[in-house]
Amino acid sequence: MNPIIGITSRQPVIKTSGGELEAHVVNKVYTDAVIRAGGTPITLPPVAPSEASRIVDRIDGLVLSGGGDIDPSFYGGKPHDDMYAIDPRRDEFEFALVREAQSRKLPVLAICRGLQVLNVALGGSLIEDIPSEIGSTDHSVRGPEVVNCHQTVKIEPDSLVAAAINNSEACVNSIHHQAVRQVAPGFRAAGWTSDGVVEVLDPDDHSWPILAVQWHPEYLAVEDDEASLALFAALVESANHQANITQ
Questions:
Q1: What is the widest separation between alpha-carbon atoms in the chain?
Q2: How far apart are alpha carbons 211 and 91 in whole angstroms?
Q3: pLDDT 10s digits, 99-144
Q4: SS3 sequence, the chain?
Q5: Which of 12, 80, 89, 228 could form a disulfide with 217 if both were Cys (CB 3.0 to 4.6 A apart)?
Q6: Backbone angles phi, psi at 107, to 5 degrees
Q7: Distance between CA 81 and CA 78 in Å, rounded?
Q8: Does domain 4-246 have CATH number 3.40.640.10?
């Protein structure tokens, strides 16, 4: 049986036969990438943080997906005009998932917001807005170009991400206006773009199979990007091992 991969969801308003309603949504590019790698994806809507343990009981791996900004009150940050789609309920649920995953060494692929959730959940902080603080506007690609790489990330060769993609450099697509400021205890920054923005986090304990990247490999996988496909393959391989252990 394929390992079960939980994917966190966002909550947009969509048009339905009953009018405009909130929905729990996972972009199809995430599920496609998981299926292609050999996993079975399931959607994880935000529920009470106390349910995180039971959820982790039932999955073999976790994708912390992209989406809106984290409430700055969770990391001692300040509100910014460009913050969007803040959802404290989602934040708290995903923080609980991260802590539960860490305690059990559950395989995780943290993507964009997911990397930021990981960092804040474990005690780190964020840059509230890259253009305002750093001056760089190179991380804000939108539209059809999201499936193409446009930035180079230099990656520490002894990191889990470098091992997964078999390379210490990757051409990536950056779609974010926030980034890591202070790295959470137990992790190190292990990948950067030329403007110094952190694009990879790496755990001190490599027995926890967690891959944390600031870019969006799920979009690049649409164009058969080898490094992006390798990240999902590494997640599913670790999750398959996890499934065999728990059977």
A1: 52
A2: 19
A3: 999 999 999 999 999 999 999 999 999 999 988 888 776 667 667 6
A4: CCCEEEEECECCEEEECCEEEECCECCHHHHHHHHHHCCEEEEECCCCHHHHHHHHHCCCEEEECCCCCCCHHHCCCCCCCCCCCCCHHHHHHHHHHHHHHHHHCCCEEEECHHHHHHHHHCCCCEECCHHHHCCCCCCECCHHHHHCCCEEEEECCCCHHHHHHCCCEEEECCECCCEECCCCCCEEEEEECCCCCEEEEEECCCCCCEEEECCCHHHHHHHCCHHHHHHHHHHHHHHHHHHHHHC
A5: 228
A6: -60, 135
A7: 10
A8: no
pTM as predicted: 0.95
Tell me the pLDDT of the chain averaged across its residues. 93
Tokens of 92: 């708290």
d(CA 39, CA 33) in angstroms, rounded, equals 9
Cβ proximity of 116 and 181 under 8 Å: no
Q: Per the structure block, which two tokens stand in for 152?
A: 């180079």
Nearest CA to 100 out of 48, 40, 142, 135 is that of 48
Pairing outcome for strands 151-155 and 187-192:
antiparallel
CA distance 75 to 146: 29
Domain ranges of the chain: 4-246
148: closest CA among 227, 83, 219? Answer: 219
